Amino acid sequence: MKKSRIVIIGTGAVGSTTAYTLLLRNRMDELVLIDANADKAAGDALDMNHGMPYLGGAKVWAGTYEDCKTADIIIITAGAAQKPGESRIDLLKRNIAIFDSIIDQVLLHTRDAILLIASNPVDIMSYRSWKKSGLPAHRVIGSGTLLDSARFRYLIGQKLHIDPRSVHAHIIGEHGDSELPVWSLANVAGTELQLSAVDKDEIFLNTRDAAYQIIQAKGATYYAIALALDRICTAILDDEGAVLNVSTLLEDYRGVSDAYLGIPCIIDRSGVRSTLELTLTDHEQDLFTQSADKLKNILATLES
User: How far is the C-alpha of 4 from the C-alpha of 151, rounded, in Å?
Assistant: First the structure.
């Protein structure tokens, strides 16, 4: 029986925390860490291996792109940090160059793995990875608005004093400033949320701006996104058919095509098995279209 293998490319805060989360939850048989800084990847692998007497049978090592050959999932968290005075578009162009190199290396050894993209801006990087790789879109997945939706559910639960696991609510669109809350479908056990307009505005603002708050406080976000990536990997490896708000290629979804955006998708061993089309209000539809237009304009800028 084939051993399950996850490869993580990029062992910064997100990559290393994701690796540790997957290891603690015993998600795979083999975990490979790859980084341009080989010493960092080796150090992380050694550190985790020292905990094996308390964990179990997973094998962890710092590897090379050749180890992608039998990978089930390749998680990409790599990316460059913004330089002083550098524009976001210039940073994005540098990150795209990094991604292009990574995708080229991966494709030398496999075309069978599912690519799971976590580097920001995740929708742009996911679209670029799909275009560059030539892989079927259902096997190139961005983390999308899964984390945003978790933040949204948590904050609603806090306000209502209800376990967030019992809150059903979606953030869709860009993983970023143009994302939107689907208040019209948010519910607890099918019942309408008892929240004022002021409450809703506060909850959404704290959802959208959560990353800024965390970065201001400690420099980076990595715990919750690691849990979100773990959730996606579990849905894939266990062939769950779970509904998760990931970033996927849209083709005439609510009038949007040829863009990666976060929407509810059914995730199983094939990757994105299918998408679920939400019924939106006119206002929500307008916001969703604006979010798509924003990303398409960025892509057009990059290509010009």
Answer: 30
Helices 38-49 & 13-24, crossing angle to 10 degrees?
20
> How sure is the predictor about 248, in pLDDT bands with cuts at 50, 70 and 90?
very high
The residue written with tokens 């905990």 in the block is 51
- Determine contact, residues 175/148, Cβ cutoff 8 Å: yes
Radius of gyration in angstroms for the set of CA atoms belonging to the chain, rounded to a whole number: 19
**CA–CA distance from 255 to each of 110, 145, 153, 264, 294 (Å)?**
34, 19, 27, 16, 15
- Mutual angle of helices 223-237 and 13-24, in 10-degree steps: 50
Nearest CA to 143 out of 201, 210, 76, 229 is that of 229
With 70 as the cut, is the pLDDT of residue 82 above it? no
List active site positions. Answer: 175
Distance CA 155, CA 240 (A): 27
pLDDT (average), residues 176-200: 96
**Do 272 and 144 touch, CB atoms closer than 8 A?**
no
Look at residue 87 and tell me whether its pLDDT is greater than 80. no
Residue linked to tokens 């792109």: 65
Sign of the torsion formed by the C-alpha atoms of 34, 36, 39 and 43: negative
The pLDDT of 239-263, averaged and rounded, is 97
Identify the band that residue 88 occupies on the pLDDT scale cut at 50, 70 and 90: low
**What average pLDDT does range 31-39 have in this prediction?**
97
- What global pTM score does this model have? 0.96
Spatial distance between the Cα atoms of 183 and 126, rounded to a whole number of angstroms: 26
DSSP state at residue 85: T
Q: Are 199 and 159 in contact (CB under 8 A)?
A: yes
Site of tokens 């010009």: 304
Calpha distance 91→281 (Å, rounded): 36
